[in-house]
Amino acid sequence: RRVVVLISGNGSNLQALIDAQGHDELGGEIVAVVSNEPEAYGLTRAREAGIDAVVLPHREYENRDAYDGALIKVIERHEPDLVVLAGFMRILTPRFVQRFLGRLINIHPSLLPAYQGLDTHARALADGVAEHGCSVHFVTEELDGGPVLLQAVVEVAEGETEESLKQKVHAREHLIYPIAVKWCLEGRLRFSGEGATFDGTPL
Ligand code: GRF
Q1: Candidate CATH numbers 3.40.50.170, 3.40.50.1860, 1.10.287.380, 3.40.50.300; the one for domain 2-190
Q2: Tell me: the pLDDT tens digits for 97-143?
Q3: Beta strands in 60-130 (DSSP E)
Q4: Is 106 labeled as ligand-binding?
Q5: Which of 173, 174, 175, 176 is the pocket-test mutation for ligand 1 (most atoms within 8 Å of CB)?
Q6: Strands 29-35, 2-7: parallel, antiparallel or unpaired by DSSP?
Q7: E strand or H helix at 55, and its extent?
Q8: What is the value of pTM for the model shown?
Q9: Domain map of the chain by residue range?
Q10: The one catalytic residue among 23, 108, 137, 170
């Protein structure tokens, strides 16, 4: 099974997926990493793992639709079973989402549907929540609104700062993303149109 990962930055989630693949725990192979940012450190991570690293700078395209058209081409060249967004900081057009619907997933640093959008940790802290976390979800046209596949919860401690909370959540992201990818590739987690379904196999 073939996986394409889209990134814009550091790529620590990408690294978690690469490491899982190295331990035969991904259920497939990352065949390409695509970044819209030429300087993204995740590209180095990909190259060091011997994975095809593709730079597709959005600044070279006239508009979102032209960019997403080019992105679709690059991705389809690699014939993926699953397209994984790992810190890809661009809003995707409906056309792109429709093209990969049901095989396009994202990780978001909050317990969705709470805190869609940016600055999730600061907003959660400001609200004084007791629990925060991260979610893997299918991507639909509604930003951060698609069906959730898997979540991890962290407790918000006394004296928690935005940075400490971010680090805690990030560590959980690295745990759950490879699992979610594996279950998607195995067909255990599926997009049903209505939501995400789990096939009920004991874990
Ligand atoms: C993560 O916080 C993820 O939840 C969000 O973007 C960030 C990517 O971090 N979608 P990294 O590049 O994987 O380190």
Answers
A1: 3.40.50.170
A2: 999 999 999 999 999 999 999 999 999 999 999 999 999 999 999 99
A3: 82-85, 104-108
A4: yes
A5: 173
A6: parallel
A7: strand 52-55
A8: 0.95
A9: 2-190
A10: 108
What residue type is assigned to position 89 of the chain? M
User: How close is the Cα of 195 to the center of ligand 1, in Å?
Assistant: 23
**Residue 203 confidence (pLDDT):** 42
Q: Which residues contact 91 (CB under 8 A, 6 or more apart)?
A: 64, 143
> Rounded to whole angstroms, what are the CA distances from 151 to 17, 106, 107, 114, 154?
17, 12, 9, 12, 10
Q: 119 is written with which tokens?
A: 């600055």
Nearest residue by C-alpha to atom 14 in ligand 1: 12
Tokens of 77: 């060249």
What's the complex ipTM? 0.97
